[in-house]
Design brief:
Elements lengths: L2 H11 L6 H16 L3 H6 L7 H15 L4 H5 L1 E4 L2 E4 L9 H14 L6 E5 L5 H9 L4 E6 L2 H14 L4 E4 L5 H4 L5 E6 L4 E2 L8 H4 L8 E2 L6 H13 E10 L5 H10 L3 E7 L5 E7 L2
Parallel strand pairs: 3-4, 3-6, 4-5, 6-9, 7-8
Antiparallel strand pairs: 1-2, 9-11, 10-11
Length: 284
């Protein structure tokens, strides 16, 4: 099978699951992973024959795609903020909207030095790595309750040659969180999807990504926000800022909760799709 034939084979095999554009994008990702060749090289060498091993791996990848497994888990990698990061089913796949959250923090921190920053619920480590990449003098720490997730995050930090302090901690454990030092910036993209919302989600999300990092009870959708806001009140330096990624349906509620606990200049910000996605508040 040639590279060009393989492209057609992939798009045909998943054509009923994805629209034409998305199927083509997935095919390009799979073929780059299999061949190590970028798109231009694959066009130039489109008649190149795949090796037996590549053919076997292609068949396995297509079977996974037909089970609607996300292509990032198949290739084991995902791009975020210009970095190719390792992803496994122990961590969420980094989203473009989260890049916008990082960019907001980076812009606010411009010109400031030696900031102490904390990411709560780090997963793959995408947020602290992107912050450290842009803010070289910052001291960046990150926590997660999942040891397998922290293993992925540590591997990503080593591959990117970025120094992050990782700790296994439960954001809902008040005693554990009290052991943390103080910070200038706290950021979190916590679980925020209510269990009843699962029926509206694509299967490739709820069927493969870690539910621990996705869902909260229907009767307590602000569970993590409440705990993190209380933590931030005690752990942020004067003038410090708290940033959240949020459920688009809960923007006003998160803003109200932050204001209730004394945060000032609380801003609700939309993402590239016009959805309420980020909140920032400051402490005096």
């Amino acid at each position: 099978m040639t590279i060009q034939t393989a492209f057609t084979y992939i798009t045909g095999a998943i054509g009923e699951l994805y629209d034409e554009r998305e199927a083509a994008n997935i095919a390009h990702i799979v073929l780059e992973h299999l061949t190590g060749m970028n798109k231009l090289d694959r066009i130039v060498h489109k008649t190149k024959i795949l090796t037996p091993d590549q053919n076997t791996r292609l068949k396995t990848a297509i079977e996974a795609l037909q089970r609607v497994e996300p292509v990032q888990y198949i290739t084991g990698s995902s791009w975020f903020y210009g970095m190719e990061l390792m992803v496994t089913r122990d961590v969420l796949i980094p989203r473009p909207e989260t890049e916008e959250l990082v960019e907001w923090i980076v812009q606010d921190a411009a010109g400031r030095h030696r900031l102490h920053m904390l990411d709560i619920g780090t997963g793959s480590g995408c947020i602290p790595l992107a912050l450290k990449k842009s803010l070289h003098s910052a001291q960046v720490s990150a926590i997660d309750v999942s040891e397998p997730a922290l293993t992925v995050a540590r591997i990503n930090a080593a591959r990117q040659r970025l120094e992050i302090n990782f700790f296994r901690m439960d954001a809902l454990d008040t005693a554990q969180m009290a052991e943390l030092p103080s910070f200038d910036v706290i950021v979190s993209n916590p679980p925020y999807i209510t269990q009843s919302e699962q029926t509206d989600m694509q299967e490739q999300v709820w069927g493969f990504e870690p539910t621990l990092a996705l869902f909260v009870p229907d009767n307590d959708a602000l569970l993590f926000y409440r705990h993190i806001i209380l933590l931030a009140k005690n752990k942020l330096h004067p003038g410090g800022a708290l940033y959240f990624e949020i459920n688009e349906a809960l923007g006003k509620e998160v803003v109200a909760l932050m204001e209730e606990h004394g945060f000032k200049k609380v801003i609700l910000k939309q993402d590239m799709f016009g959805k309420d996605r980020m909140v920032k508040g400051e402490l005096d």
